[in-house]
Write a structure and sequence with these properties.
The structure holds 2 protein chains of 2 kinds. Chain A is mainly alpha-helical. In chain A, 73% of the residues lie in helices and 2% in strands. In chain B, helix 13 packs antiparallel against helix 18. In chain B, 64% of the residues are buried. The C terminus of chain B is likely disordered. Classes of the chains: A mainly alpha, B mainly alpha.
Chain lengths: 626, 489
Amino acid sequence: MNPNILLIPILVPIIAGVLTFILPKSVKWGKEILALIATAITMYYAAVIFKAGGEGLRLFVPWTSFGINFDLWAYHFPKFILLAAAGFEILLALYTASFMDGKERSKEYFAYFLLTAGLANGAILSNNFVLMLFFWESLLATLYGMISIGNKEAFKTATKALVISGIADFAMILGIIFAWHLSGTLTMSEIHLEPMGLGAAAFVLMGLGAMAKAGAMPFHTWIPDAAIDAPLPFMAYLPAALEKLLGIYMLGRISLEMFTIHMNSSMSIFLMAIGAITIVLAVMMALVQKDYKKLLSFHAISQVGYMILGIGTGVPAGIVGGLFHMLNHAMYKCTLFLTGGAVEKQAGTTELKKLGGLFKLMPITGVAFWVAAFAISGVPPFNGFFSKELVFHGAVETGKMIFPIAAWIGAIFTFASFLKLGHATYFGQQSSEMPNKAPKDPGLAMTIPMLVIALGCILFGVYSKLPLKYLIQPVLEGRAILEGHAGHMEFWVFHLNWIVWVSMACLVIAWLIHQYGVKKGQGQAYLASEPIHNLPVMHTLYDWAEARAFDIYEWFVNGLLKGAAWTVFKVVDRGIDAVYERLIVFVGGVATGVLKEYHNGLYANYLAWVVGGFALLVIYLAVLVK
Amino acid sequence: MGWEFSLLATILVPIIGAFTLPLIGLASKPGRNAWAVILGLATTFFAVTLLPAAFSGETHVFQRAIGLGVDATFVVDGLSVFMAIASALISTLIIIYSLGYIKDYHYQQEYFLMVVLFLGAMMGLVFSANLILMYVFWEITGICSWRLIGFFRDKEVVIKADKAFLVTAGGAVFMLLGFALVYAKTGTFNMLDMRGFPIGGLAVALITMGIFAKSATLPFHTWLPDAGVAPTPVTALLHAAVLVKIGVYAFARIFNYTFVIPGDWQTYLMILGLISAMVSASAALIETNIKRILALSTVSQIGYIFMGLAAFNTIGVAGALLFILMHGLAKGGLFLAAGVIEHGTGTKDITKMGGLIKAMPVTAVAFIMCVFSIVGVPPFGGFFSKFMVIQGIIKSNHIAIGALAIFTALLTLVYLMRLFTLVFLGEARDTSIHAHKEGTPTMVWVVASLAVLSLAAGILVKYPMDLANIAVRDVLGNPAIHDILGVLR
């Protein structure tokens, strides 16, 4: 097969995106058709590329000097991610066509949408670090553009997202340069390093960049803001699906291919700690949210924790679980955001207080929601259950029990918050404050993507063997990580052991918490999390979080960075300028003043100067020059 | 057309042509404007015709005695041709832009004379292979910039122009002392004869003062933000394209190409570049005057170029040379966009602006494109140059400096986004400011083309990179130098 077809998933969306920009406004449905055609072509070629056997396809064209080559390589791992990304791209193009119809700047949105698709596909296929960064960082520009299309205040969130992603990307660049310095090559597949010394720094920096792309803490804080300010399809597209795929894929490449992370090594603990912290803190924030989209956005952060925890275990079961969770998460979280968009468009609000009783009015949306909600909560037999169990198994295998316990705590509150969300939105009484009194299911363009992905959540659960065997497991084949685990490679075989029972117990606890909360809130489901919200210490912490005390952007960029800059400006920059403006002017003034005193126009004075000078000259000649 | 003819034409066409401009201006203003553009285009054209000579791999030397025992020695190699094309291209775009900007002001005759003379002096400077010749052109550019900054004749403006002149000329005096020290050891000012000669720390320090004063690098940088009182095309010319790059070029020609400097001075120079980059980036985060912010940003980016050159390895020097071009394009675009904004709103205070994207969509989009290039976001050109400079720093085993250079890139992102957001987004904060329209078509056209060139230079990075590589080969290509460097390290 001609390796040039690797260019199609990159160039076709990018060209379509550029065309969308210059498309005249008068062309009706032009941008939608362009987007659907481009994503359909991408999808088809992603499938063709996926089917290509052997070592996969490789396109190598020298680009410029210093080892910077246009090097694309579709072996199993990128092929599978490309296929997944292409699937989301086409479904979201369909959904967006309906959602953004008639909205201001929708043409621009489609242009960014397509550019993002092409750039993301490029980042997935790249096998040269500079090429990868070229695509990866270009996504900053489209990210900024997409968020800024939202409401009036969206540009602030867009800037915040850009700066936070920028911090992470710069960290990644530094890590890549370290890796290049150690290995002497920019070709990704040729880099094999030990995470020690500068290598450890390279791993941590690159890992941070990848995890931040996926939305891990502490690089997450723009996501909940974007949930409110950015157009909704953006949330389903980037934070829910594409960024997870990209970030976890890159983390996988870094920690499986470029470095090998051994169980309980310091790098493994580092990853697991970030994973565990992200799971617990983000889910606690999600629990108390009272807005549909904002609640989902915190789960988009929390779930990344499972993926990072799984990959960080350094145990095959955990890694497989983490990667499978990435795929599953992209599916159910995408569905959840799409239902959120349907509710927003049809009911006119996403505030839980103003919703309720929608299941009867919007049954298709309701079904899609509950499938995805069960999947994210790890209810069997949906897909999330299987990937979470694998992560639990991996975490237990490391012997550091704090990590599986954190994961289980996350599971409890995930289910509790989705019971709250689902209860408050779809059951109970319809709120009298709902802006649209008689909402109904949206049109096919919006329901088809929801249902297709929701169906995927069921299939990937019931037939979890298929994705595990054909998509995930080949990623690990031949890797050093499998040494000593040869007998345990059938991850699709389900073991009913104590770990599963603990997980089931978590679901029951969540159910009880929810029932208790609803009772306390006098039957108002949206208040179900208030008992936890009002716990003594928790309440203070929540208040701080609401005041953005934990927001890296607020305290680091707006606080520390600006404060330090102000000090440097006042002390160093203005200080140096004062030397020119004040000191030199002053010294010059004094010097000329003194000299002026001696130029008083008196003949005797000048005569004395001449005589004195002559005397000095005589002494000089007489004494020194002999 | 032989390379000798092209060389002389590149230098003499703008220098002689500059003095014909006022004469033509007496007869016809449009004629003079057209002639100025033609001179710029012709200079660029002749510089481009030197490319084959540069690519040929040989160093072409032009040497003629001009009396008083001084030789006019010019060198045509990758480095000089690269600098000549980069500066002439950007200067020409700026001359075109200034036709629209300057048309309502007094002293246009002097303006065009000085701008074109500046270009000619710059061409003479980059081809000079003799330290004294270089110094002469160096001071001509200083005089031109002094008149250009003082274009508006208010007292405060004239003081700022004097400040700029005094700082740069004062630095040049120290540089001359440094040259004298070198002469005392070698007995020649001809750089070609001195290649590979090791010089001492004192000479490096003295020459560096001249370079840093011209390039507005800490602690000689404060004249540059103050020079923002000049008309916008001048600030763009001074900052982005040419004047501050003179110091950079001199660094490459003197320290990288000609002499071998002590090993610890390589580290000192890199640290000085870093401090300059960090301090001015911090200041840019606090300032509220759009031109001062951009000027400080220039100071900051020049710091990167010095860091790349001070890495003394192929990738760092190549990145630094590429940086000269990328920064020139993008920062030129930003300054000229700032001119459009100032023209439209009548203020430079960004805290009074806001929401200008509605009135000036093309300028806004061009502005953000240039911002992304300066920050180093692909697909814009600035990404490659910044990436390679930091690669160079790390490769020279200055890990901490590399990390802080990345941190400075983050600062750059923060202050430029603050600038963009305050100027173009949200609502206008001072309702007395009304901007209903874009600048003149010529102005907007130039701004947009600089933005597009920044993008093209990223996607088609191969071509500028090839040129930079030729320059690097010439700069570091002397095998004798490598031997000496090997001993020193």
